[in-house]
């Protein structure tokens, strides 16, 4: 009887977890890019260009995502743009080992592309983060779904498990474009 109960629980939970982890962020219409993105796109060709890379299987891809997320989070000190660059909201690679959320995300994207992760599987995303503030994370698309690399945690998580409300995401294919996302716990407030 115990075995049957265990099997029943397994058959109910595993498909739900796979569906939960294996989903892509929904996107709808085009939207203007966030302030600072166009300048970063002009400065960093890898941000809006496409690089040819060999597709990674999910196991190797997730391992690489975890490695890069931990490495970048460990070597950059969190700092607002004003204190690290002297300007307002600047989207750039970290300056002198310091940066804010979009700087972390840019560094992770650059490092992943250099490590062979396909650029058309990476996109920046603006979310409502802790304390109801806009926050930028990196989305990595795998066959198993969309995963979030975040400077606030060393864990790489499926987008649905972050607790974030996703507002807009860089277009995976047309890399200079952005799309409305509206997904997550507070998405209904913005539709």
UniProtKB/TrEMBL annotation:
Task: Name the domain of life this protein comes from.
Answer: Bacteria
Keywords associated with the record: Signal
Q: Does the keyword Signal apply?
A: yes
Cite the Pfam families for this sequence: Peptidase_C93
Coiled coil region boundaries? none
Signal peptide extent: 1-21
UniProt-listed PANTHER family = BLR5470 PROTEIN, PTHR39327
- Name the UniProt record assigns to this protein: Transglutaminase
Supply the source organism for this entry. Answer: Rhizobium esperanzae
> What does the organism's lineage look like at the top?
Bacteria, Pseudomonadati, Pseudomonadota, Alphaproteobacteria, Hyphomicrobiales
């Amino acid at each position: 009887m115990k075995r049957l109960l265990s099997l029943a629980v397994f058959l109910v939970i595993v498909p739900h977890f796979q569906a939960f982890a294996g989903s892509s962020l929904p996107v709808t219409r085009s939207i203007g890019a966030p302030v600072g993105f166009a300048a970063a796109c002009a400065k960093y060709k890898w941000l809006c260009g496409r690089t040819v890379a060999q597709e990674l299987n999910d196991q190797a891809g997730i391992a690489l995502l975890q490695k890069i997320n931990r490495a970048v989070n460990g070597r950059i000190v969190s700092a607002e743009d004003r204190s690290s660059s002297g300007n307002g909201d600047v989207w750039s690679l970290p300056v002198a080992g310091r940066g804010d959320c979009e700087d972390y995300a840019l560094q992770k994207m650059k490092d992943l592309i250099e490590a062979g992760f396909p650029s058309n599987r990476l996109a920046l995303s603006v979310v409502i983060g802790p304390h109801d503030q806009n926050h930028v994370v990196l989305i990595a698309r795998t066959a198993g779904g969309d995963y979030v690399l975040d400077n606030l945690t060393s864990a790489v998580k499926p987008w649905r498990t972050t607790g974030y409300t996703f507002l807009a995401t860089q277009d995976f294919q047309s890399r200079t474009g952005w799309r409305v996302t509206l997904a997550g716990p507070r998405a209904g407030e913005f539709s």
